[in-house]
């Protein structure tokens, strides 16, 4: 039996922030020579982990092909017994188009991933089946039913699947030369927080489930890449698991990055062990500078002073910080631009990342705004973190978009970039390169806004 797994992907302004190939074209090629293996000339994107995960769950009697629209051009003449398509909200329309093309040829299609899991009926209009939630809970059934020609309309896991015994992802059908030399790995799922603007706790639950340290160790030891990206939503929530993980990574001498909660910086000793184990970059949700916004939308997150202290601590421990900030909450206004610029300066935040509030379907904020008639677009490709898709309280729609770009441009002034990057001398070339990438991304968005709007 033949299975094609596809990552449907529609380009968005987000690409501008990480567009290494644009950077190469503009005369920074020499800088590239200085860089670590992370950004060597191998490809231009990160491997979407859902596809090798599905491949790992697929029995050996299925012949699996993986296609990712970030790096591959699709050929709709391919033959298959089943096509599985993974996608996020901004790529939903593209995914439906791709699904429709295969179905026209009589090929069965199943859709899955974060958008299909919440917009099940919509996804069902373009597919034979919809996978709701984590495939570990139902994928075997899908394949069995597909081989008998008896696919059901919806598949869902009875409960959140345990990750203890789940097979490791299978990357054998992936041409790694098309991607950054980064190995994506997931060690936990779920997040105990319940931020209103996020769907993660809805999709994966608030109880953190963990893979066994043995299987993580096996996976890490089997990959040749010298850089690991932990795609866990909130690595380090379970301290015992985390400390065991640090031991494993330390022994491999690989570098790594992860998304964590800023609270990780409560423990100075832990930060030191993280640095010793090869941690070079942490992605943290700064979310908002407004105490009121935090209280309403991100309960349990830190106040501004604590955030400032924790960001500094991580940076002083030698680890870079990519701080994700969202603009457009009800207590935000154009004044937020200056408050934020001040915060970036004070903390020397390595990579400020600013985006417009995007109420993804399935999140509480989406449901609340829908009730208040504040959602103005359900054109999913607009759900790209830069376009305003709702009626903001203290901004005009265009004002929110220009403010995001203004903050971005302010944050990446050359002098400030050099000052803060110099703090990470061991990662200087790579961090400088990434900062250029961000800078050029915001510049490109500014040009697009001038020409009449973002996509
Ligand atoms: C790592 C990550 C990234 C990385 C890597 C992206 C990549 N190429 O893989 C980066 C930083 C580049 C990134 C970018 C973006 N991301 Co992102 N990302 C994540 C994160 C943290 C983990 C994703 C992951 O690898 N999970 C591990 C795999 C194994 O899990 P999974 O993908 O969910 O797959 C499981 C199930 O969903 C299901 N499944 C998935 N696909 C399919 C398909 C079929 C057929 C079936 C049956 C089942 C199925 O089974 C899988 C196994 O259980 C998630 C948060 C999260 N927990 O989902 C956000 C998340 C997926 N990202 C999100 C978004 C919006 C984006 C962007 C679109 C942002 C933007 N504006 O551009 C971009 C897209 C860029 C891109 N190239 O894809 C949103 C999606 C929300 C939504 N409703 O769509 C999430 C959920 C974050 C959030 N808090 O809202 N992202
Ligand atoms: S935004 Fe981060 S901390 Fe909040 S629920 Fe989502 S994953 Fe958890």
Number of strands: 14
Major sheet summary line: 6 strands, parallel
Helix content: 40-55%
Q: Roughly how many Å apart are the termini?
A: 40 Å
Bound molecules: cobalamin, iron/sulfur cluster
- Unreliable spans: 24-41
CATH topology-level name of the largest domain: TIM Barrel
What's the CATH H-level homologous superfamily of the largest domain? Aldolase class I
Inertia-based shape: globular
Question: What's the tally of helices?
Answer: 18
Summed up, the domain count is: 2
Average pLDDT for all residues: 91
User: Structural class of the helix and strand makeup?
Assistant: alpha/beta
CATH architectural designation of the largest domain:
Alpha-Beta Barrel
Going across the biggest sheet, name each strand in turn: 2-1-3-4-5-6
Summed up:
The protein has 455 residues and is of the alpha/beta class.
Keywords:
Rossmann fold; TIM Barrel; 2 domains; six-stranded parallel beta sheet; 18 helices; binds cobalamin; binds iron/sulfur cluster
Would you spell out the secondary-structure blueprint of this structure?
Layout: E1 2-7, H1 14-17, H2 20-33, H3 50-57, E2 63-68, E3 82-86, H4 92-104, E4 108-112, H5 114-118, H6 120-124, E5 129-132, H7 139-147, E6 154-156, E7 183-185, E8 188-189, H8 200-204, E9 209-210, H9 213-222, E10 227-235, H10 239-252, E11 255-260, H11 268-276, E12 279-287, H12 291-297, H13 304-316, E13 320-327, H14 336-347, E14 351-356, H15 364-371, H16 397-411, H17 414-422, H18 428-451
Parallel strand pairs: 1-2, 1-3, 3-4, 4-5, 5-6, 7-10, 10-11, 11-12, 12-13, 13-14
Antiparallel strand pairs: 8-9
Helix pairs in contact: 2-18, 9-10, 14-16, 16-18, 17-18
The structure holds cobalamin and iron/sulfur cluster.
């Amino acid at each position: 039996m033949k299975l094609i797994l596809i990552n449907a992907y529609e380009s968005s302004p987000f690409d501008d922030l990480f567009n290494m190939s644009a950077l190469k074209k503009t005369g920074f090629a020499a800088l590239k020579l200085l860089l670590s293996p992370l950004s060597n000339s191998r490809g231009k994107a990160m491997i979407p982990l859902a596809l090798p995960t599905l491949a790992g769950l697929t029995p050996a009697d299925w012949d699996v092909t993986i296609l990712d629209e970030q790096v591959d051009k699709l050929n709709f003449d391919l033959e298959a017994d089943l096509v599985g398509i993974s996608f996020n909200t901004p790529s939903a329309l593209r995914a439906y188009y791709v699904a429709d093309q295969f179905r026209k040829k009589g090929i069965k299609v199943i859709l899955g991933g974060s958008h299909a899991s919440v917009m099940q009926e919509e996804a069902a209009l373009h597919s034979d089946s919809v996978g709701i939630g984590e495939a570990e809970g139902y994928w075997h059934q899908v394949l069995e039913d597909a081989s008998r020609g008896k696919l059901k309309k919806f598949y869902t896991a009875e409960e959140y699947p345990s990750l203890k015994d789940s097979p490791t992802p299978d990357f054998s059908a992936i041409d790694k030369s098309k991607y950054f030399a980064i190995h994506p790995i997931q060690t936990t799922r779920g997040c105990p927080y319940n931020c209103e603007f996020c769907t993660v706790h809805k999709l994966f639950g608030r109880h953190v489930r963990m893979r066994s340290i043995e299987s993580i160790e096996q996976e890490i030891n089997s990959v040749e890449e010298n850089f690991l990206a932990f795609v866990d939503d909130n690595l380090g929530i379970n301290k015992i698991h985390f400390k065991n993980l640090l031991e494993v990574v330390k022994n491999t001498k690989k570098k790594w990055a992860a998304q964590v909660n800023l609270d990780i910086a409560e423990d100075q000793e832990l930060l030191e062990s993280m640095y010793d184990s090869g941690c070079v970059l942490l992605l943290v949700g700064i979310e908002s500078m407004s105490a009121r916004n935090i209280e309403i939308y991100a309960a349990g997150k830190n106040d501004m002073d604590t955030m400032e202290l924790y960001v500094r601590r991580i940076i002083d421990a030698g680890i870079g910080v990519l701080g994700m900030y969202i603009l457009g909450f009800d207590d935000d206004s154009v004044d937020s631009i200056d408050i934020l610029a001040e915060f970036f300066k004070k903390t020397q935040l390595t990579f400020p990342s600013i985006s417009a509030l995007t109420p993804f379907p399935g999140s509480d904020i989406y449901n609340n705004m829908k009730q208040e008639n504040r959602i103005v677009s359900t054109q999913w490709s607009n759900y790209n973190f830069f376009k305003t898709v709702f009626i903001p309280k203290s901004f005009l729609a265009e004002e929110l978009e220009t403010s995001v770009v203004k903050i971005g441009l302010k944050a990446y002034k050359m002098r400030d970039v050099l000052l803060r990057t110099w703090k990470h001398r061991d990662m200087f070339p790579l961090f400088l390169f990434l900062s250029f990438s961000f800078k050029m991304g915001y510049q490109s968005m500014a040009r697009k806004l001038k020409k009449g709007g973002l996509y």
